[in-house]
Amino acid sequence: MISKRPGDRILVVDEDRQVLDLLANQVLKPLGYQVEVESEGSRAVERALAYTPDLIIVSLTVPGLSGKDLLVALRFQGSEVPVLVTAPEGREEDAIQAFRLGAVDYLVKPLREAEVVAALERALNELRLRRDRHELAGQLGESNRQLERRVRELTTLYGIGKVVTSTKDQGQLFTKLMEGSLYVTEADMGWMLLQDEKTKQLFLRTHRNLPAHFSARMHKPWNDGVSSLVMLSGQALSIHGEGLSQFELSQFCQAALIAPTKVRDQPIGVLCVARKEAKPFSERDQAMLEAVADYASISLVNTRLFQALEARAKKLQQVVDQSQTAGQIDPQKWAHAQQITKAMRVQVSRLMEKTNDPEIYPGLEEISAKLETLVEQLSVSNGVGSG
User: Fold this and answer.
1) What is the pLDDT of residue 10?
2) What is the C-alpha separation between 106 and 129, in angstroms, rounded?
3) Which of 101, 125, 149 represents a domain boundary (last residue)?
4) Cis status of the peptide bond prior to 110, with omega within 30 of 0
5) Where residue 281 sits, what CATH number does that domain have?
6) In terms of C-beta density within 10 A (0-12 exposed, 13-18 middle, 19 or more buried), how is residue 330 classed?
């Protein structure tokens, strides 16, 4: 049984009008096929290229341009449409030549409906199998490309995560964040803005591939009209084309994607990527940029914690130095120092519980050891002062 598909087109080329009527009106059209007929071989090639049939049935004895010549012409034009050839009995040598030229089957005249249907079924099924294989191969290739991209994206995110948890160098960190952002979103340029804690203005902290004159705006206020909206909403924003034209960003890009970096659910900056062409960013791009922005948030939190710990340690050291110079500690200063020390030790303990990173853990141990030393110095100094 023929598993035909809607829209299958068949071109019949034969010098016999009765054969054309038999095939077109009595066999093929009742089965639901779209049929075109041609009685002149010289016009058959042009008709085949214009009609783009799924299958051709051609007589080897058609006048003007023979069936074999038609096969040669079709292959010369790059056509891969399957061709069934027909010929009177006794033309087997011509049939063999037709097979060598690419014909898929041979029918002997006078034609019988059952034989035509069977040959048609074989040829079309083979055609569909070939198309399905080609389609599946294309889908497999696309799936492999997508899988490779996902692996590269995850590898990039893993690399960013390693840098975030193992470096205190903010410059190195920002560089890695920018490289990762551009890679996972396939963007042309990117930049990062951080909010000043006092003025609440956004400042340009790092960028990649922005026009040269933007280098002069490093560490200076930045207001593009879009980033401030993201800061207010706390949600990522993708904008391109006409929607972007009213903002300053349209002067150097046609599509932008902006994701907030947050601390305790409060935006403290934005991570931005852009394209020179008005090709919008996909939901996948947005998800990947948000993941990088999350890493940026973690790194900023870590940096602030370390800065706070270092500042408190310095303050404690100043208290100890002053007490040793004076020979005694004021009770209020001692109590204050003790409070700071306890708070710092709690913070350090929490950080040590949450991280197993081989590069950060030793640093936390060092801070913890310094705190213990300060406690001992405070205790000794207090004993001297009270004695």
Assistant:
1) 92
2) 20
3) 125
4) yes
5) 3.30.450.40
6) middle
Model confidence over 218-267: pLDDT tens digits?
889 988 889 989 999 999 999 998 888 888 888 899 999 999 988 888 88
In the chain the beta strands, taken as DSSP E runs, fall at: 9-13, 34-38, 55-59, 83-88, 105-109, 189-195, 202-208, 237-240, 255-263, 266-275
Count up the domains in the chain and report the number: 3
What does residue 240 show for φ and ψ, rounded to 5 degrees? -160, 170
Do 296 and 171 lie in a common domain?
yes
Inter-CA distances, 132 with 9, 127, 136, 138, 250, Å: 18, 9, 6, 10, 44
Q: Please state, in angstroms and rounded to a whole number, the distance separating the CA atoms of residues 295 and 290.
A: 9
Tally of CA atoms within 13 A in the half-sphere of 155 that contains its CB? 7
Strand 9-13 with 55-59, pairing: parallel
Domain finish residue from 108, 125, 142: 125
**pTM (2 d.p.):** 0.50
Q: What is the DSSP string of 355-383?
A: ---TTTHHHHHHHHHHHHHHHHHHHHHHH
Q: Kindly state the DSSP code that residue 10 receives in the 8-state scheme.
A: E
pLDDT confidence bin for 386, thresholds 50/70/90: very low
CA dist 366 → 191, 342, 348, 349 (Å):
34, 16, 10, 12
Helix (H/G/I), strand (E/B), else coil: 154: helix
363 has pLDDT over 80: no
217 and 343, same domain (yes or no)? no
Q: Print the domain residue range for 106.
A: 9-125
Please report the pLDDT score of residue 223 as a whole number: 87
Query: DSSP class of residue 221?
Result: B
Instruction: Please state whether 245 falls in left (phi above 0), alpha (psi between -120 and 50) or beta.
Output: alpha
Please indicate, yes or no, whether residues 290 and 186 belong to a single structural domain of this protein: yes
- In terms of Cα–Cα distance, which of 80, 41, 78 is closest to 59? 41
Residue with tokens 């038999």: 22
Any domain includes 4: no
Q: Which two tokens stand for residue 21?
A: 């009527």
